[in-house]
Amino acid sequence: MRTTTHILLAGICCFLASVKLEADEPDQTKVSSSLAWQEKSVEYARIMSRVKWTPVADGMPKRGGHFTAGKEYTGVPYSSVKHVGRYIGFDIFLKTFMAAVENPKSVLYTENLYGKVSNAECYYGKVCSSYTSYALQCGIWYVSKIHGPQFRDGVTNVEPQSAQAASPGDVIYTPPKKQNGGSHVELVTEVIRNKAGKVTHVRIEESRPQTTSNTLRSAQAFDAHLAARNRELYRITDLDAWRGGNKAESFLFPNYEDDSESPKINCVLLLDRGDWVPYFKGQAVKFNVMDRDKQGVVALVIKRGSEEVEEIVNPGKGVLARSFDTCGDYTAHCVMQDGSLSQACEFAVCELAFKLPSMDVSRGKPWEIELTTDNMNAIIVYFKNSKDGSDEHNVFITEEDRRSGKVTIPASITQDAEKVQVWLIGENRYGRLKKRQMITVID
Asked: What Å distances lie between residue 327 and 57, 68, 96, 282, 337, CA to CA?
């Protein structure tokens, strides 16, 4: 018998949004994965592909337009946020996105990435590679071009390339149409066989415009899908070898347990970036006093730890902005007319910065990056060759690096590039922040 799984996520106040796996065809048997990580990859993929959410305002951008207020959507939005916005699951909790959805003055409705970041619209989102990498338990995404055996260990092409050989956890790779063009990855999450053992259907889940999607194809349609665009079906045979040092369990994010929970979203007060979220030191934090249940708000109280930072008497409804130069974990709550306290919003104020060498980097020589952090651990330096989408590298920052305030970059990282994007990624218990600079490599 097919099984139905329910994952609950919070909507306004005590309203819960249900995420479920739909039953499709009767009298068919689902093939169970024999490996625990494969089963987890399906479970984690479905956290993002089955979540239901409804915009509370107009203005949330998507490819070719905007999401419609009051319309329910399934799956998180597609947006290649890069270093500017934040990836759902890697940079923020799923509940942070859900809280931002419920705030009509959040960054989802007031900001967009049109013209700022290629292939991006919404400030929070996911793309194909961050979707599969999240499901496959990585600490940071691998771009789609480097999922396969040409670039990674522990992965091979499935033989034969057909539905009959497919298994949950397999990856479908679509190569770019032209050199340096965009590629795509999808995840096989279900294989259905009839009583005779023949595969009848294969389910594929993926991140693509407009939201993460879920498609059940017949075996014939699946084979036709593989044949089109010279797609390849990959199988990860050794997850640890495929991930290398890039393991989710080594970091605070992704946080699958938290992303699967049913948080209660604040009805009275929300932040411009949702809730449970980090801000840069000195960055404006915008508090939207909503009071949706019309209980009456007599004060807004902001605390850093147990210390009161400010009490704003009779704030009224609407947005108030404050910036904070002292790093730490903060809360904000409202005092209601009857003397009760609203649910508190939680956020962190953090410093994350880095200094590159004053001169251009010489090819073939190691070099150093200086780190500056407060209330956040620097965890990864990510490198991307500006001219080659498959030339990306991660340097994982050790505790010793953090203590010394610098990290040594091996010469091999910049061996084949002339201009390189350098991202510093930091995290604390509320999420991740990213800073980017460019550096030139000379001979």
From this structure: 32, 37, 20, 9, 31
Residues 6+ apart with CB under 8 A from 222: 162, 163, 166, 201, 202, 204
Q: Where are the domains of the chain?
A: 6-259, 269-350, 356-442
pLDDT by 10s per residue, the chain, length 443: 333 333 333 333 433 433 333 333 333 333 333 448 999 999 999 999 999 999 999 999 999 999 999 999 999 999 999 999 999 999 999 999 999 999 999 999 999 998 889 899 999 999 999 999 999 999 999 999 999 999 999 999 999 999 999 999 999 999 998 776 789 999 999 999 999 999 999 999 999 999 999 999 999 999 999 999 999 999 999 999 999 999 999 999 999 999 999 889 999 999 999 999 999 999 999 999 999 999 999 999 999 999 999 999 999 999 999 999 999 999 999 999 999 999 999 999 999 999 999 888 999 899 999 999 999 999 999 999 988 878 899 999 999 999 999 999 999 999 888 899 999 999 999 999 999 999 999 98
**Cα–Cα distance for residue pair 292/387, rounded to 1 Å:** 50
pTM: 0.91
SS3 142: coil
C-alpha dihedral, 212 to 164 to 44 to 82, nearest 10°:
-50
134 alpha-carbon distance from chain centroid:
7
The two structure tokens encoding residue 306: 């147990």
Please say whether the beta carbons of 281 and 347 come within 8 A: no
Contacts of 36 (CB under 8 A, 6+ apart): none
Amino acid identity of residue 276, one-letter, is W
| Fold held by 356-442 | Immunoglobulin-like (2.60.40)
Domains 269-350 and 356-442 share a fold: yes
- Nearest CA among 351, 352, 354, 349 for reference residue 332: 349
CB atoms within 10 A of CB 31: 14
Domain 269-350: assigned CATH number: 2.60.40.10
Helix (H, G, I), strand (E, B) or coil at 265: strand
d(CA 443, CA 441): 7
Q: Is-contact 346 389, C-beta < 8 A?
A: no
List beta partners, residue 371.
Answer: 354
Which residue stretches of 380-427 are H helix? 399-404
